[in-house]
Write a structure and sequence with these properties.
This protein is mainly β. It has strands spanning 2-7, 10-12, 18-26, 28-39, 46-52, 58-59, 67-72, 77-82, 91-101, 106-110, 114-118. The strands form 2 sheets. Strands 2, 4, 5, 6, 9, 10 and 11 form a 7-stranded mixed sheet that branches. A 4-stranded antiparallel sheet has the order 1-3-8-7, with no helix packed on it. A hairpin with a 5-residue loop joins strand 5 and strand 6. It is elongated.
Length: 120
């Protein structure tokens, strides 16, 4: 079994910064890919940033130059550093991991979501 726990969301003023974390635990053999998605009210979930072991990071155009995705393999954790936040970044942010379990079963896992609100 695998669990994902997100943290780091909150209320921040425009121009501020937040760092989201997503820690995976359980029966993990390896993590192939990590990503952050977000969903604003009334909108579809969209990909914000992604990172894999073989491909460099990719970002949505709307966050390029402001957000950075990174990983700590020893901790099975993915981060999203968000700088120069804008009101339009307000959304629930979800982490996604493509995990190979020790049982050699591979699957998609999602975090519970964390609210990010950018407002003055």
């Amino acid at each position: 079994q695998v669990q994902l726990v997100e943290s780091g969301g909150g209320l921040v003023q425009p121009g501020g910064s937040l760092r989201l974390s997503c820690a995976a635990s359980g029966s993990i053999r390896s993590i192939y890919a990590m990503a952050w998605y977000r969903q604003a009210p009334g909108k579809e979930r969209e990909l914000v940033a992604s990172l894999s072991s073989s491909i460099s990071a990719n970002y949505a155009d709307s966050v390029k130059g402001r957000f950075t995705i990174s990983r700590d393999n020893a901790k099975n954790t993915v981060y999203l550093q968000m700088n120069s936040l804008k009101p339009e970044d307000t959304a629930v942010y979800y982490c996604y991991l493509d995990i190979l379990r020790k049982s050699l079963l591979r699957g998609d896992y999602w975090g519970q979501g964390t609210q990010v609100t950018v407002s003055s």
